[in-house]
Design goal:
The structure holds two protein chains of two kinds. Chain A is an alpha+beta fold. Chain A contains 14 helices and twelve strands. In chain A, the strands form three sheets. In chain A, strands 2-1-5-4-3 form a five-stranded antiparallel beta sheet. By secondary structure, chain B is an all-alpha fold. In chain B, α2 packs antiparallel against α3. Chain B is elongated. Chain B starts with 5 loop residues before the first helix and ends with a helix. Classes of the chains: A alpha+beta, B mainly alpha. At the A-B interface, loops of A face α1 and α4 of B.
């Protein structure tokens, strides 16, 4: 530091000097006059002591005053410096909001400047701190809310970071996991292997199933060597749903191929037989052609259901609602299915009371639902059984029921029977895609109604579905 | 001078046990999955992987014995390492169960025999979940979990009974299926034994923490079994 001298601090000294000289100038002649007068009066030698005393007193007083002024101002400045030092210390500790910069810093402009500079630093630091805090909060929010799991470990395998999604995946809490080994946290050899490979410079992406919960994950190993030397990151993407859909799709396709094979094989056998000579035997040929017709019907039904499914999936199925009589719906279904029921040796009955309100429905679709339910009933009711169609009003709904006294539905199947592709009794359900009931469910729910089944052991089943009634119009 | 301190060695062995646990869990799940999908290739893979499990079991055993010899652990450290020797063995046994299931899966791959696979899957999921948590309790010294997990063994036993009955009914109705039915019974037997071994692991947790040797209530089959 360069040695500097601030001239203005000399003003007290100049002042005292001037005052002393002035006092001297004033008092000296008086004292001088009086000592000479005294010499003349007493006849002794001139006594110079009073002059010395005067000068001594003036100097002493001057020094004293100077000292007092010095003490006062030095103390002031020390106080201010102390306050500023405290403020600087608080700044160092990060207490930006509690700093007190003294307002009155005395007369030294240097100290004033120091105070102002300190104030500015405090404000700037506070701003920077707030900005960093906000950024940190934003990053934290991203980590905590993202659906992928993130784990960061250092090169000794100690976990450094675990976000919320990863906590949920591995069923650990962040506080417990930090500092633990990757083996303890992830508990899976494939994941530990992935971490090791990535750490050694061979990052990979793997697909794996995690644990008894059968979560299907895609895990990406990323080396953070560039930005955070020694650290590795693992990213966990939960693809369980997608994987499930993939399995369902795969099973569906394999199921379809399997189901299609039977009617097609049947058709092939029949056409071969006809070509081989059965054509020349008209009654036999006729029998075969009837079989063929049936198989084509089966195939047609299957294809229709497939189309229906794809339409449902694409959200493109259109409904044409109109006011309809419930009994009309019942009658139509009855007429459609009576022949099939008779062929199967099952009695089909219908029961439609008067005074039912109209419903808003798509008659074609509702007919589809009936056909499906009655078709199932026929399949699961042995020869000699009965199927009854009824309808009644329940407050704001109209309830339709298809009741049979067939083999019923097993308890374990009751809840799942409306699921896509679910087949309760495989042996009896034979052909078919397992889509029928789920299509019914879709149709009924699109009408704003509900569909459900009740069944007690072996005494048959009752399938119910509701359609909302219209406000007025009790005709018939 | 050993390269690592006793604490570091114990941590290393612990990690190895957890990794073996993961291998064994996955083996059980994979074997049952292969059974469900009638996938002989996948089953074969599980069968062959048992070699890896045995190798790891052997390595852990060595590691623990060397630690005993070179570090002279005392008190709770000693109990912990001794208990890990036992857990190591239990895990290897469970690995053998998985191997047994995979053998059945290979045999049944080509048959049409209807396996009550959903319940078997439930059994496998429950047993592996119990195993997973018991190892977690082991590492954490969690005696609360160590007492509560063995109670889930009852659920496993219930599933066993239910599946057993179904299979026997099927065998009575159709004697042609006796051989295949028997093999499926072997599968559920293995899963039930897995759950029993988990109970043993939980008993060891209590031992490590308190020095007490406890016996948790096991199923009746235990008394007749010479496994």
């Amino acid at each position: 530091m360069k040695p500097r001298f601030h001239l203005r601090i000399l003003w007290p000294f100049i002042l005292i000097l001037v005052a002393s000289l002035a006092a001297l100038a004033l008092l000296f002649p008086l004292v001088h006059g009086s000592i000479f007068q005294q010499a003349v009066e007493t006849g002794e030698e001139v006594n110079f002591v009073p002059i010395f005393t005067l000068v001594f007193l003036i100097v002493a007083i001057g020094l004293l005053v100077g000292l007092l002024i010095n003490i006062y101002y030095t103390n002031q400045h020390l106080n201010v410096l102390e306050d500023l030092t405290d403020a600087a210390k608080e700044l160092g500790e990060g207490k930006f909001t509690e700093i007190e910069i003294p307002k009155n810093v005395g007369d030294l402009p240097e100290i004033q400047e120091l105070a102002e500079a300190l104030q500015k630093t405090a404000l700037q630091t506070e701003e920077q701190f707030n900005a960093l805090t906000k950024e940190r909060a934003m990053l934290s929010a991203v980590l905590d809310h993202m659906t992928d799991g993130v784990l960061i470990a250092d090169d000794s395998g100690s976990v450094q970071l675990l976000n919320t999604a990863a906590e949920r995946l591995f069923k650990v809490e962040n506080e417990q996991a930090i500092g633990r080994s990757v083996v303890e946290v992830m508990r899976h050899y494939s994941l530990v292997e992935l971490w090791e490979k990535t750490k050694n410079g061979n990052p990979e992406t793997i697909n794996m199933e995690l644990g008894s919960a059968h979560k299907y994950l895609q895990v990406v190993g990323i080396s953070l060597e560039k930005d955070l030397p020694g650290r590795t990151m693992l990213l966990f993407q939960d693809l369980t749903q997608t994987h499930q859909l993939e399995i369902v799709r795969r099973d569906f396709v394999s199921n379809i191929s399997h189901e299609l094979r039977t009617p097609i094989a049947g058709l092939k056998a029949i056409s071969e037989t006809l070509l081989d000579g059965a054509l020349d035997d008209p009654p036999a040929a006729r029998k075969f052609l009837v079989h063929m017709d049936n198989e084509v019907d089966n195939l047609t039904q299957m294809v229709n259901e497939l189309l229906e499914l794809s339409r449902i999936e694409a959200g493109r199925s259109n409904f044409e609602f109109q006011r309809v009589e419930p009994c009309q719906l019942l009658n139509t279904a009855f007429d459609r299915m009576i022949l099939q029921a008779e062929k199967a040796g099952v009695t089909l009955m219908q029961d439609c009371p008067a005074g039912l309100p109209q419903v808003y429905a798509d008659p074609v679709r509702i007919s589809q639902v009936f056909v499906n339910l009655i078709h199932n009933a026929i399949k699961f009711t042995p020869n000699g059984g009965h199927i009854r169609l009824t309808v009644w009003r329940d407050d704001k709904q109209v309830v339709f029921m298809v009741k049979d006294d067939g083999v019923g539905v097993a308890k374990k199947d009751l809840k799942r029977i409306f699921e896509r592709f679910y087949k309760a009794d495989r042996a009896r359900s034979g052909g078919g895609t397992g889509l029928g009931l789920s299509i019914c469910k879709h149709i009924v729910e699109a009408h704003g109604g509900q569909i459900w089944v009740e069944s007690e052991g072996n005494s048959g089943s009752q399938f119910f579905f509701t359609v909302p009634a219209t406000a007025g119009g009790n005709i018939g | 001078m050993s390269r690592f301190t006793l604490d570091q060695e114990i941590r290393l062995v612990q990690d190895e046990i957890l990794l073996l646990g993961s291998l064994v869990e996955q083996a059980i799940l994979n074997s049952v999955d292969a059974l469900q999908r009638r996938d002989a290739t996948a089953a074969q893979r599980v069968y062959e992987n048992d070699r890896k499990i045995n190798a790891k079991h052997h390595a852990i055993e060595n590691h623990i014995l060397i630690t005993f010899a070179t570090q002279s652990p005392l008190a709770s450290d000693l109990r912990f390492l001794a208990a890990m020797l036992e857990v190591n063995t239990e895990l290897e046994r469970i690995g053998d169960y998985a191997k047994g299931i995979s053998k059945v899966a290979i045999h049944l791959a080509d048959s049409d025999y209807a396996i009550p696979i959903r319940e078997i899957q439930q059994m496998a999921d429950l047993a592996t979940s119990m195993l997973h948590r018991s190892l977690g309790a082991f590492v954490a010294g969690d005696t609360v979990a160590a007492h509560s997990i063995p109670e889930e063994d009852n659920q496993v036993d219930e599933l066993y009974e239910s599946i057993y009955r179904k299979i026997v009914e099927g065998m009575i109705k159709n004697p042609d299926t006796i051989d295949l039915g028997n093999q499926v019974i072997w599968v559920i037997h293995n899963l039930e034994r897995t759950a029993d071994r988990v109970t043993n692991i939980c008993e060891r947790v209590v031992f490590i923490v308190s020095g007490e040797s406890v016996e948790f209530d096991v199923s009746d089959d235990e008394q007749l079994d010479q496994d």
